[in-house]
Design a protein that fits this description.
Blueprint: H1 3-19, H2 25-38, H3 42-54, H4 61-78, H5 110-126, H6 131-147, H7 153-176
Helix pairs in contact: 2-6, 3-4, 4-5, 5-6, 5-7, 6-7
Length: 180
């Protein structure tokens, strides 16, 4: 079996699994809201402000994180996505879920990438105590994109992998610059 066939089978399987819970009012609300909050990394910028306001983040971490999230988004959405021309699973989005339909390639998911990137960087700073919170948020935002049918399941998996890899690179650079 070709890789593309395996990916297509995975995408079909993931969509079937998500369809089993689509229509549940709570799931619809959670995933639609998560998808909207993931737009332009809003959820991560709000998290950054909250970390600063509560003293969880240091005075240096707050502006550095804002710049890093912006740089990751630019790299993925204006760089990596341009290498691929994958169409989205629905032409105009799924009318059940009123979310913005991006004009960029479907692969990889930028929401998933920024989510994994943010969770990786924040876990590096905050340690294992807050890691479950960061990764729960990241996973919810990532899965929301397949849930609202703006991305294929494999776009989300690739986005998570991309974001985690970029997050590990960022952590290494931050350690080198003594910004941990």
């Amino acid at each position: 079996m070709k890789l593309s066939e395996s990916v297509e089978r995975f995408d079909d399987w993931a969509d079937i699994q998500l369809e089993l819970i689509r229509g549940n009012p709570l799931a619809d609300a959670v995933f639609t809201t998560a998808s909207k909050l993931g737009e332009f990394s809003l959820v991560w910028h709000l998290t950054n402000v909250a970390r600063g306001a509560t003293g969880v983040g240091t005075g240096t971490q707050i502006p550095v994180f804002a710049v890093l999230v912006g740089a990751e988004s630019l790299l993925v959405n204006q760089g990596i996505k341009r290498l691929f021309r994958r169409t989205r699973p629905t032409e105009g989005g799924d009318e059940r879920f009123p979310v913005r339909r991006p004009t960029t390639s479907s692969f990889p998911s930028g929401h998933a990438s920024s989510a994994a990137f943010a969770a990786t960087v924040l876990t590096g700073w905050d340690g294992p105590r807050l890691a479950p919170l960061w990764w729960t948020m990241a996973t919810t935002v990532a899965v929301s994109r397949a849930y609202v049918r703006i991305h294929h399941g494999s776009d989300v998996v690739a986005g998570l992998a991309t974001g985690a890899a970029l997050g590990l690179v960022a952590r290494r650079v931050l350690r080198h610059l003594d910004l941990t």
